[in-house]
């Protein structure tokens, strides 16, 4: 599907935002679909966020993505927030309706699950308990994605236990909160382990995690992609577990956003992944 008489425009709002790989993704898809358009980084300060969002229709934008620090604040600045985004407590995608109204959703959970299925087509959320490390926005998106995919038990473990308790209270079954000290024991029968904390990221402390009790067939994921293989993923791979980094989540959350804006559902091809990996 092409739009020969229309210049398609979208972008990502954040602060900072120039490091984002999203422009490379979306501009690649414009070319692949034979569409004339541009996806641009928009460095927006918090005090100018609402004005920037309200300018989208007049500027001809089909919509935009939101990244740190705007995912939560923007919820009060749009006209409609769907149920998925409300459960996650943040938005990452805004669509400009034909009447100029701003509709918001969150595709992070979708992107996460799709990244697991891409890496391990036989993976199932209901194959056993899932352990999620962290209780921030990334964790909430992962938990909602797992729950919607059929996970029967999701053990949320955070360094600040109160935040894990809050997440469990907000989302309810199948979520349970466990203390940080119990992270090793919580792996005993887990089929999926996900790190959503900053531990292990470039420039951050390492994640101290004993994988000794983890099932040999468990899938281990880290939602960061810099570095491409964290120490957690390296340790899991060394013991024979399948591993997934966060690059697939980034790519797959972008696909339905592009579809919502421009009517084309792009694909996550090996060539696209290789192009993004070359920039890391």
Structure report:
With 280 residues, the protein is α/β, with parallel strands linked by helices. The protein has helices spanning 22-33, 49-59, 83-88, 108-119, 137-148, 161-171, 231-238, 247-262, 270-277; strands spanning 8-14, 37-43, 63-66, 80-81, 93-96, 102-105, 130-133, 154-158, 175-179, 192-195, 219-222, 242-244. The chain folds into two domains: 8-106 and 250-277, 3-Layer(aba) Sandwich (Rossmann fold), CATH 3.40.50.10860; 109-245, NAD(P)-binding Rossmann-like Domain (Rossmann fold, 3-Layer(aba) Sandwich). Helices cover 34% and strands 19% of the residues. A six-stranded mixed β-sheet has the order 2-1-3-5-6-4, with helices on both faces. Strands 9-8-7-10-11-12 form a six-stranded parallel β-sheet, with helices on both faces. The longest helix has 16 residues, at 247-262. It is globular and about 60 Å long. 44% of the residues are buried. The mean pLDDT is 95.
CATH architecture name of the largest domain: 3-Layer(aba) Sandwich
Oligomeric composition of the shown chains: single chain
The count of β-strands is: 12
What is the highest CATH level, the class of the largest domain?
A: Alpha Beta
* H and E string: EHEHEEHEEHEHEHEEEHEHH
* Low-pLDDT runs: none
β content, as a range?
Answer: 15-25%
Class from secondary-structure proportions: alpha/beta
Number of helices: 9
Report the principal-axis shape.
globular
Would you identify the CATH H-level superfamily of the largest domain?
NAD(P)-binding Rossmann-like Domain
Rg, rounded, reads: 19 Å
Q: What is the average per-residue confidence, as pLDDT, rounded to a whole number?
A: 95
